[in-house]
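Page 37, continued from 36.
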């Protein structure tokens, strides 16, 4: 029996792993060992997501969080190497672009264990982003590259990676949106904020280091959200790190007029997304979820990996030169519709991934 060692550590990875793990569990000839690095260690960032998504408790929890990039990655490498030696998996499966991703890929590659990377081939072409470095190195360490789009596959071929290693399967986030969107509807879940009118508010998320660690950018983004709030209510679930940066920079006055929430469970977040008039975010995953739920998106960055959504008119990059420009872009996005496109597959990426692992 083939044994898959799955490595997760952050909220977006829990979502992606949930749909693939469900398929692994239902497939004869495959078993899975789940490892949680602890990168997102807050109960609201981790435990609630595991419960919502139906992910079983991790077989190994490394508890590594709150460190610098180098220290965190180094500690993860050490911990994951020991787990891999003990578990002796057939494949190591990693997701996305976090420190957990690159640590898992490097540890496996050095132990000569085949690596499969879900969401391979994404490029912002901005090497100042830690996530971009993680993506590139992980892809070049991996034996199987599961790409979500044709653009991602093209990126890998341009970097000289063998076409035999590339499997264009579609986006597991689309699988998740279909499954959990139907579940929220079945349960009658609505946005978990009293008084919100569906279709009449902005949902905002900010967590990228390029925004939270640059006081000027963070100030402009918050000022833009505050300006937008004069036209539409703005709801903002706050990543703990973002909340800390806002306070440390003395920017709390710029959150006045915004409805600030603690991190939400996944189903609550889906309900918030489905009911929003506009989503403003720096999250790659949330950009796609906006599209899956038919909600216009404004990306609070200078570039995006999901260029097909910009080309199709569902997403736009916000000019971050002034708070007024950010606010105007958010308000103007209300009611915008993009082209009828389907760049992320047929909603069965997880099935294609599991089938390829079983055959490899």
């Amino acid at each position: 029996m083939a044994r898959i060692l799955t490595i997760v550590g952050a909220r977006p990875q829990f979502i992606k792993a949930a749909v693939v793990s469900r398929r692994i569990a239902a497939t004869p000839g495959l078993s899975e060992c789940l490892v949680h690095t602890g990168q997102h260690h807050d109960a609201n960032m981790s435990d609630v997501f595991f419960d919502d998504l139906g992910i079983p408790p991790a077989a190994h929890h490394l508890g590594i969080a709150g460190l610098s990039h180098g220290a965190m990655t180094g500690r993860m490498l050490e911990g994951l190497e020991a787990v891999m030696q003990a578990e002796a998996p057939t494949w190591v499966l990693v997701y996305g672009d976090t420190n957990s991703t690159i640590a898992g890929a490097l540890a496996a590659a050095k132990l000569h264990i085949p690596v499969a990377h879900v969401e391979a081939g994404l490029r912002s072409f901005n090497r100042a982003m830690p996530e971009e470095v993680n993506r590139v190195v992980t892809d070049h360490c991996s034996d199987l590259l599961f790409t979500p789009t044709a653009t991602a596959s093209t990126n890998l071929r341009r970097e000289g990676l063998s076409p035999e290693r590339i499997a264009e399967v579609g986006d597991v986030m689309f699988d998740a949106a279909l499954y959990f969107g139907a579940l929220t509807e079945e349960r009658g879940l609505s946005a978990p904020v009293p008084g919100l009118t569906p279709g009449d508010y902005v949902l905002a998320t900010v967590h990228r280091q390029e925004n939270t660690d640059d006081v000027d950018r963070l100030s402009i983004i918050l000022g833009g959200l505050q300006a937008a709030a004069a036209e539409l209510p703005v709801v903002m679930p706050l990543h703990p790190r973002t909340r800390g940066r806002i306070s440390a920079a003395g920017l709390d006055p710029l959150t006045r007029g915004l409805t600030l929430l603690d991190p939400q469970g996944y189903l609550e977040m889906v309900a918030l997304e489905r009911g929003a008039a506009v989503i403003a975010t720096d999250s790659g995953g949330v950009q796609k979820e906006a599209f899956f739920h038919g909600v216009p998106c404004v990306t609070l960055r200078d570039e995006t990996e999901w260029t097909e959504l910009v080309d199709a008119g569902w997403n736009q990059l916000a000019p971050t030169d002034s708070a007024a420009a950010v606010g105007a872009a958010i308000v103007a996005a209300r009611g915008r519709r993009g082209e009828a496109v389907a760049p992320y597959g047929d909603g069965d990426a997880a099935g294609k991934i599991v089938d390829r692992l079983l055959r490899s």
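The first strand starts at residue 2 and ends at 8. Flag for discussion at group meeting. The radius of gyration is 20 Å.
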